User: Fold these one by one.
Assistant:
Number 1:
Amino acid sequence: MEATEGESDTAERSLIIVAIDGPAGSGKSTVAKRLAVALGLEYLDTGAMYRSVTFAALAGGVDPADTDAVAQIARRIEMTIGGDGTVLVHGVDATTQIRGPEVTRAVSVVAANPEVRAELVSRQREWARRRNGGVLEGRDIGSVVFPDAKLKIYLTASPHVRAARRAGEVIDLDYGTVAADLARRDALDSGRRHDPLVRADGATEIDTSHLTIDQVVELIAGKLDD
Ligand code: DC
């Protein structure tokens, strides 16, 4: 039997969702992973989903700006996003490629495509429903995917700290290149028409610039007990 709208609203509220949003390099992935372990929940990196669609488009010779063709790819793509960071696209390991410079350069255009967003948001909601909740990180989790999440966190850090963190994660790019790419992606993610990066209503903002991972995880876990 199909759930009525009222029933599905109630079901939504009973999910234990922790929504973690923020710009690149704010510490989302590290914090979300650790928090999920601490809370006994599963973790979903939604950025890896946008990256997987971008990877599939580039691998198939499709222009990331071709909105219809990329939307088609998003609807058909088979992807497995592991909680340990491994990613399979159509059964093939794409863990390294989705983090590479080609995908990183093109992903903001794909993430601005409303049809891609509609498809991935629906998959994210389904992922959480099947698990009775989870820790999801991205840009629009608290604002669009789960506006009724039990806990909404917006992580930030200064542009310098974020660029230094990202530069430490990649081996083939220097600080200046990473900082410029981060600034470009910030502008695209925050300035796009559909579901831009914003601090969701009711989200707690935490500046992680001068905090350790343990401190941030502790702060967030403490909020769940409030
Ligand atoms: O977090 P990340 O750098 O892996 O994200 C990759 C891109 O996907 C980035 O440009 C922002 C976008 N994104 C998004 O628009 N919505 C999400 N929920 C997650 C990521």
Note: Confidence is low (pLDDT under 50) at residues 1-8.
Number 2:
Amino acid sequence: MQIIRDIAMLRRAVTALKQGGKSVALVPTMGALHDGHLSLVRMAKRVADHVVVSIFVNPTQFGPNEDFSAYPRDEARDAALLAQEGVGLLWAPDVAIMYPAGHSTHIEVAELGADYCGAARPGHFDGVATVVSKLFNQVHPDVAIFGEKDWQQLAIIRRMARDLDFALDILGAPIARDVDGLALSSRNAYLSSDQRAAAVAFPKALQAAAKAIAGGADVDDALARAKADIVAGGFDSVDYVALADAGSLERLDVFRAPARLLAAARIGKTRLIDNYPVD
Ligand code: PAF
């Protein structure tokens, strides 16, 4: 597997991969890879001839009091996992390549970025949209794959790609979960063993609420019950539990399909997100 850190070399390598009309899939990541990421890589291998994975811990999507410096980084381990999966190219730029001195352009997907995680993490989705648009321009993939765990992020990236006429397909990959139902996340590594045991309350409460709403329960009651169950299960606070239109992310007081139950909650210093379809 080639590890490339320079844009000119990346362009040459991608041009070589595309020779003979071959397709390229991009899997953007921030590293600290787990089975969820590897499931994106496997999907990428199914839909394209070559897979490029990027690893870049993007400073512009972290707020001033967030975990940018503590975010887990182990490129050697990640590279070994990707090589085992048969990935051909790892794009691993450093911050000075991604954001050269004087970098002053950013992308805001206004309508979809303001609520939910956008409200709790001001500027986060501008950082995501900006770096993802740069990755698209750097790699020029035919298709890019993102996890459905970050449902709002996926909706924002789809809208950005449409609004800015990026010529690629965006695919969402189903959420990978641990055996007890907790969605896989690089941030699960922050949990103590007690917190990890308690964290199962989060998917359990959301799954129950999604089922209740689909079965006709009052939406406000189901959301209130889910919040109470998450806190009773050992979480310190709930940022939001909301029913949203699956595409526009508009908040729904009354269920109509296709909808998604979106949530974020904090346990100790760790903020977890998750979502379930309601249908
Ligand atoms: O989902 C992530 O890991 C990041 O937000 C992404 C898409 C790689 C952009 O930095």
Note: The beta strands are 2-4, 24-29, 50-55, 89-91, 143-147, 169-173, 237-245, 259-267, 270-278.
Number 3:
Amino acid sequence: MKYIFVTGGVISSLGKGLSAASIGNLLEARGLSVTFLKLDPYINVDPGTMNPYQHGEVFVTDDGAETDLDLGHYERFSLNRMSKENNYTTGKIYYNVISKERRGDFLGGTVQVVPHITDEIKHCIVAAGRVKGRKIDVVIVEIGGTVGDIESLPFLEAIRQFPYDIKKENVLYIHLTLIPFIKAADELKTKPTQHSVNKLREIGIQPDILLCRTDRFISQVLKKKIALFCNVETTAVITAKDVESSYEVPLVFHKEGLDEIITKKLKLKSDRPNLKSWEKMVNRIYHSKKEISIALIGKYVGLKDSYKSLYESLIHGGIGNEVKIHIEWIDSERLEGVDVSPMLKGCSGILVAGGFGTRGTEGKISAIRYAREGGVPFFGICLGMQCAVIEVARNVAGLKGANSTEFEPHTPHPVIDLMGSQRNKKEKGGTMRLGAYPCLIQKGTRTYQAYQHGEISERHRHRYEVNNSYRKQLSDAGLVFAGLSPDKTLVELIELKDHPWFVAVQYHPEFQSRPENPHPLFREFIKAGLDHQSAGV
Ligand code: GLN
């Protein structure tokens, strides 16, 4: 087993997650089998209880883990399906160690950062490489945070120790750093990178490869200089140039020789990479002639990362239809108490995102009404579906004051209510209905046609559901309960009769969409958008 450790320097947001994912993509293209591990320095046991503004999207895995959004990159760029073994936080590591201490595993000993915390970290790294039914060649481990932070030190110490357990030839350190272009000097500057590498070397880690984030390709002369000061080979200085689409990153890395040098250094036998279909997909992104606008309505649009997988899935829907997607990010609060049509008029499709709490929900409901009445393609996700049910209940079924008990506990018509299984839950962390569950789709529906079959499995993250005692009234009003849980107790999917495309789901299809295999509902939503656009409505 080989291990690649990806660290980041100088500043955050350089794209460590995308770099790790792209490395995995290239190694897979060479016929190698990879998996990933993200180590996050914060104390929360997982990001499930964090505000998206603090953390961005929470990515949900099949096994119901609430994880870092980088796991979404890993899944989209590789054939992997992530699980709870693929993301550890400082909080989770300490939680494990403290549980062992309480159990008496360390009786007589003083429990310390070194070796107990670092041993636990190393244990998780090794465990990530043991994937049921697959023989993994390379584990790619991304360390969150920036080198120099206090928080990530135990992780860095653990990866420093790692080669002593399994020999250096099986380990590679890759450091992502920044080479800023300073306009006034008309020059790319290497000093921040030198400092960042020094910081790593101070704690005993000598990077083998540098990924240098820049806005232009780095010349050979500059690569030599960086190599000299940072103690790496010149060929190991890789330009990580800014690109318009993140899906181009593996192609840029390949051009710079990254996969070649990784396989050489790790002595991995592999084929030349087959990047043909990936290249074709990237070409589709760059060269689609048509373009449509889609409104993405949510209350966290101030931070685009809050809707990372949704955004990517819309792009995938665009790839599937050979059309560029322009996203109109709309804060749902701005749609409250106003005429929404000026804001939504130019859009060929309206997507209402998931979320929690009351703020902005009335804006979402107004947008849904606009889509329903105007025949604009509408796609509701999780809370977006719940808002669609409320809208139809109020404005079609005539259930005045209908609402979700999440927003109004004493509503006269609780068309959305807490799931029975949630009623006794006291703790907030990890207690929602999480992960993959099956759903059966009714034949003859639009969604059945999209999926081309009736048995699906999709990922969930919710506490509320459609109140079954209102099903009759809602279906009389035109709602089609197109997808239900196999025991028929839970509404998973709704459609509206007599509308060009009105589909909403209790689950999160965005977690399973891939650039080369767009999720059928996103593909069909964009297709409906195109039809709407060409009808010139
Ligand atoms: N707040 C809603 C629930 O818990 C919707 C959750 C979501 O959109 N992820 O059911």
Note: Residues 354-356, 382-383, 406, 461-464 surround glutamine (CB under 6 Å).
Number 4:
Amino acid sequence: MSKRVLVTGGAGFVGSHLCKRLLDEGSDVLCVDNFFTGTRRNVLELLDNKHFELMRHDVTFPLHVEVDEIYNLACPASPVHYQFDPVQTTKTSVMGAINMLGLAKRLRVPILQASTSEVYGDPEVHPQQEAYWGHVNPIGPRSCYDEGKRCAETLFFDYRRQHDLKIKVIRIFNTYGPKMHPNDGRVVSNFVVQALQGRDITIYGDGSQTRSFCYVDDLVDAMIRMMGTDDSVTGPINTGNPVEFTIKQLAETVVDMVNTGSRVVYQPLPVDDPKQRRPDITKARDILGWEPKVQLREGLVKTIDYFESQLGTVAKAAE
Ligand code: NAD
Ligand code: UDP
Ligand code: UDP
């Protein structure tokens, strides 16, 4: 019999790719989402599949279902969205984690947490290794997300220590690709949509801050490998692309690839915006036998194609 897999946040950007991949591998998928940032459109192609079920539910409330594995992704990931209702963001991370851990405890099934590089805050150690405890402002506008995700990690490890749960924690670094929300404010979607519409490309600050961009297919591959590890592997394990770019370089690359005459403009840097970020992926290489395969330009081609096909929708959403 096939496995039944729960994906919370499954109608979001990463979640929708994960659901598709799990179905392709022969699992039954239960996708749970409250559609805060995710949409039915992201999983439209899966709705006719009899092995796929979509349930509207908010993970801050208990969930009683029967499954064999849990991927916990429910949480807005873009600063614009997670700062829209910061209290709900912390609730989603913390109460969502408690409920999904309670579910995993009752069912005695493995549970994977989509944690984040934001647990390192504005890092003073570079590149970031899992052993680094981070440099996080507990009271700033990013804290609802950063501290919510840190507390979720704490809960995962306490459920491990107290209840011997099979936990898997990955720390995801900036990931991009098709099905990102066109207006979610993250840098890759912003730059690509701005360039496609011939609008100004908005660099925040002077563009010298760095990020490392992982294509979504590579991330999904790491998630599935992580779930497949034996019970002794808990993480946290960094998943991301170790090739680092300045935001200015990213802007130049997008302008070069889309070529609609967009100009680069400079806007103020948001509060607590991390200056640098690059994962040390030694653990992912050693434990998961994983490293990203898709280079930035290659991933951008697919992302640009996607947003181009969505331009009508993008224009409508911007009205
Ligand atoms: P996303 O916003 O596209 O997806 C999040 C999904 O969770 C959405 O479908 C949203 O509707 C749903 N959701 C939010 N609150 C919920 C709630 N209370 N109950 C049920 N569903 C809820 O973001 P994403 O980029 O796909 O991120 C997925 C996960 O990966 C998140 O947990 C995020 O923190 C983590 N992550 C992503 C990145 C990245 O670069 N994409 C980086 C680090 C961590
Ligand atoms: N929970 C859930 N589904 C389940 C089992 C538990 O949503 O199938 C929730 C439950 O409502 C509780 C949380 O998970 O709020 C934590 O459960 P746990 O058993 O760890 O704690 P307790 O119920 O003892 O507080
Ligand atoms: N950024 C930018 N222009 C934009 C959106 C973002 O210069 O239109 C910058 C942002 O200030 C940050 C980087 O790009 O330094 C990555 O931002 P994103 O919101 O994608 O992710 P995060 O800050 O969470 O890594």
Note: The longest strand covers residues 28-33.
